[in-house]
Amino acid sequence: MSAIIDVRHVHKAFGGLNVINDCSIQVEEGSITGLIGPNGAGKSTLFNIIAGALPLDSGQILLDGEDITNRPANELFHKGLLRTFQIAHEFSQMTALENLMMVPPAQAGESLFNAWLKPGVVREQETEVRQRALEVIEFIGLHHVRNELAGNLSGGQKKLLELGRTMMTNACVVLLDEIAAGVNRTLLGDLMTNIERLNREMGYTFLVIEHDMDMIARLCDPVIVLAQGSVMVEGSIEEIQNNPQVIEAYFGAGAA
Ligand SMILES: Nc1ncnc2c1ncn2[C@@H]1O[C@H](COP(=O)(O)OP(=O)(O)OP(=O)(O)O)[C@@H](O)[C@H]1O
Hints:
Elements: E1 3-14, E2 17-28, E3 32-36, H1 43-50, E4 58-63, E5 66-67, H2 73-78, E6 81-83, H3 96-101, H4 112-117, H5 119-139, H6 155-167, E7 173-177, H7 185-202, E8 205-209, H8 213-219, E9 223-227, E10 230-235, H9 237-241, H10 244-251
Parallel strand pairs: 3-8, 3-9, 6-7, 7-8
Antiparallel strand pairs: 1-2, 1-4, 4-5, 9-10
The protein binds adenosine-5'-triphosphate (ATP).
Adenosine-5'-triphosphate binds next to helix 1.
C-alpha cells in the first residue's frame, strides 16, 4: 500500500497559539484510518487544512503524490478528496433523493447554453443522475424516505444521507468528522456497515475523526493519536488502548 494522503511537517497557529506542530501523518490507500485525541488536540484543524478549508503556515500535503498544499476545497473535490458536511439549510427543503441529485458537479442542466441548445443531452444526464441517486439511496437504506424533506429526517438518517452524497461523486478519499455524534445505535450500525462496504467494495479510503471508541475499534486500522497538534502514537486499536501515554493524555496523570 502507498500513502494517498501524506501530511508533511505541517504547522498552524491561530494568533499566538500553536495548534498544529510539525505534524506528519500518512493515510494508506484503501485504509480506514482513525484520528483521535483529547479535546482541543487539533484534529478538526488538521482536517480543515487537508480538506482545503484552512491555509497552513508551513509544511506540505500530498494527495496520491501530488502537492495539494493550500489548494481550495472545490479543486480537491474534483480530485476526489472530500469531507462530509452537515446538510446545509437550503438543502433541508429538498427531498432526500433531490439532495443526492444535487451533488454531481458540472451537470449539463446547470448551463443555460445546454438547457436551450442541447435539451436532449440535459434530459439524458438527468436520467442518469436520477438512476445513480436511486441506487445510492437503496445502498444507504433510505429508499423508504427518499421523498421526505431532508430537514425532516432523523439525525442518523441525515448522516447516512451525507455519506450517500459522497457516493454521488468520484470520491477516492473521504474525511469523516464525528459522523457518529447524535446517531442512535441501530443507525450507527448501518452507517458503519456502509462505510465498510464503501471501503471494501468500492475502494474508498477514509480518514475518520471520532470520539466514539466503539466505532474507532470496529472500523479503524491504524489509529493515529494527536495531542497538542502532533502525533503522539500510531498503531492498532489494541496498541493505542494499552499505551500509557494515551491513557494519560485522555484521563490525566495517575490513570495509567
Ligand atoms: N479559527 C480558530 N481561531 C482560533 N483558535 C482556534 C480556531 N480553530 C480552532 N482553534 C483552537 O485550536 C485548538 C484545536 O482545536 P480543534 O477544533 O482543531 O481541536 P479538536 O481536536 O478537533 O477538538 P475537539 O475534539 O474538542 O473537537 C483549540 O484550542 C481551539 O480553540
